Amino acid sequence: MNTAPTHKWFKSSYSGGSGTECVEAAFVQPGVLVRDSKAPERPHLCVSMPAWASFLSGIPRPGTT
Prior knowledge:
Blueprint: E1 10-11, E2 23-27, E3 31-36, E4 45-48, H1 49-57
Antiparallel strand pairs: 1-2, 2-3, 3-4
């Protein structure tokens, strides 16, 4: 899949505050692209929207653990 600059990448709100553990995502058809923000030129993952939703549902929310 082409990761042209037109993709609107955003950083995960759960990435580390030190700037060393950053994950970025971009919504595309047919799902979501996921990459390491420190190495955006490297290969990335493309997951379906149901898989992304399932992944997010497994992440504990702050204050709920």
